[in-house]
Amino acid sequence: MDCPNCGKEMQKGFLQAGNILAFNKQRHKLSLKPREPEDTMIVQKAFTATDFSGFICKECGLVIFDYKNPLTRW
């Protein structure tokens, strides 16, 4: 897969995270819980970590992964 940012080839792999992962409109200092309608709790597990298949561009740093289908293996 080519990077949509810089056009270089992206490396296939896995984004691995701990038990909570969120994408928030603004940085939250104390809690990752969504506060705004635009905020998204990607994963919240009590005792296990998680991983997502995806791609990383080593040239520009862009990471692409599918948070709704974590088991998708592109």
Textual characterization of the structure:
The radius of gyration is 14 Å and the shape is globular. 0% of the residues lie in helices and 35% in strands. The strands form two sheets. Strands 1-4-5 form a three-stranded antiparallel β-sheet, with no helix packed on it. Strands 2-3 form a two-stranded antiparallel ribbon. It is mainly beta and 74 residues long.
What keyword list fits this structure?
single chain, 74 residues, mainly beta, three-stranded antiparallel β-sheet, two-stranded antiparallel sheet, 5 strands, 0% helix
Tell me what portion of residues adopts beta-strand conformation: 35-45%
- The level of helicity is under 10%
Q: Please work out how many helical segments DSSP would assign.
A: 0
**Radius of gyration, CA atoms, in whole angstroms:** 14 Å
Average pLDDT reading: 86
**Helix vs. strand class:** mainly beta
Shape verdict? globular
Q: Which runs of at least 5 residues are low in confidence (pLDDT < 50)?
A: none
Q: Helix and strand string, N-terminal first?
A: EEEEE
In brief:
This protein is an all-beta fold and 74 residues long.
Walk me through the topology.
Layout (H helix, E strand, L loop, with lengths): L10 E7 L2 E4 L16 E5 L5 E7 L6 E3 L9
Antiparallel strand pairs: 1-4, 2-3, 4-5
